[in-house]
Write a structure and sequence with these properties.
The protein has 288 residues and is an alpha+beta fold. Helices cover 29% and strands 36% of the residues. The chain has two domains: 2-100, 3-Layer(aba) Sandwich (Aminopeptidase); 127-281, Aminopeptidase, CATH 3.40.630. The two termini are 30 Å apart. Bound molecules: coenzyme A (COA). Residues 8-141 form the N-acetyltransferase domain.
């Protein structure tokens, strides 16, 4: 494809130097570190748009969650060639690779028109809360004694709860997070009713995924995961409307920074309602 004076072809994203991908995301002011790109590449597939001398002008990725579902992310066109059809060109290829899986993605304002034109349907607003964590002045709830650390050996129970909330099993993601994240669980009457993770990502620490059966349980998990992070940069993305969880995040120094929209193609997003497992904190925009 020709974009301005550049002749571009797609290549497998696995073949590219991570520094070229890092430069691409820095160019659109995204916080990903090279290690975050490598983690995404170990979890999914994708393409880059490259010119004849190997310069990278764009990227797009997809992440299979079993045979029926996938998330799409890391869709970037470098600013000097935006609005020339490059985003659409890469997305057409990614959609082909995804086959007939149902799809979930989180869209920035810049990408919204593109995704709607490709048949994606808006489902929810994602609120990105972040900031330097402070001791919560007036916690809505304190850390719940029922919150416990979960060792990697407990992953089976966590993965089952995650699948119930997400609507599909995410075995590859769960295995990856077991090796890189700290995991806390919330148990009631011996049954795991919630879990949350924290890991290094972007500018600091990301708390997510968070799965719970109520906002109060999500707060208990997040409160526990914030322990020891005072003064550190922390981010949590949630689809919850204003309420207990988001008030708690604000009180802990994680202010609302930006919003994106979740769109799906092929099936609606599972609802989050009290009494059944739901996603209260996203893993990452690209992974939902
Ligand atoms: C979103 C992005 C990938 C689109 O790439 P692109 O190469 O400009 O896309 P295209 O040229 O194929 O344009 C696709 C559509 O988006 C529209 N568009 C492009 N940039 C836009 C912007 N900044 N604001 C609103 N619409 C925009 C185009 O007009 C086009 O719509 P049309 O077909 O109705 O005319 C690119 O703007 C980008 O990298 N932005 C920063 C990172 C980002 O937000 N990524 C999306 C993550 S979900």
């Amino acid at each position: 494809m020709r974009l301005k004076s550049y002749e571009l072809a797609t290549q497998d994203i696995a073949s590219v130097d991570v520094e070229a991908l890092h430069a691409l995301s820095l160019g659109v002011e995204w916080p990903h570190r090279p290690g975050d790109w490598d983690a995404f590449r170990s979890l999914g597939h994708g393409i880059v748009a490259q010119d004849e001398i190997g310069r990278v002008f764009g990227s797009a990725m997809w992440f299979p969650h079993g045979e029926e579902c996938a998330t799409i992310g890391m869709v970037i066109t470098t600013p000097r060639v935006q609005a020339q059809g490059g985003g659409r060109w890469m997305m057409d290829r990614i959609l082909q690779q995804c086959g007939d899986r149902r799809l979930i993605l989180n869209s920035t304002r810049a990408a919204y028109r593109l995704y709607v034109a490709l048949g994606f349907v808006p489902q929810a607003t994602v609120s990105q809360h972040q900031g330097y964590a402070t001791p919560w002045a007036a916690p809505v709830l304190g850390p719940d004694p029922a919150v416990e650390a979960i060792a990697p050996a407990g992953l089976g129970e966590v993965a089952a709860l995650d699948a119930a909330a997400f609507g599909a099993a995410r075995p590859r993601l769960m295995a990856h997070l077991a090796g890189t994240a700290e995991i806390r669980g919330l148990r009631r009457d011996g049954r795991l009713v919630g879990y949350g993770m924290r890991r290094a990502f972007g500018r600091g620490t990301v708390i997510g995924p968070v799965v719970a059966e109520s906002e109060a349980d999500a707060v208990a998990l997040v409160a526990s995961l914030l322990t020891g992070l005072d003064g550190r940069f922390v981010r949590l993305d949630t689809r919850q409307p204003p309420g207990l969880l988001r008030s708690f995040l604000e009180s802990a120094g994680l202010a609302l920074f930006d919003t994106t929209k979740t769109l799906t193609r092929g099936a609606p997003l599972p609802v989050v309602e009290p009494g059944r497992p739901g996603i209260y904190g996203l893993t990452a925009h690209a992974l939902s």
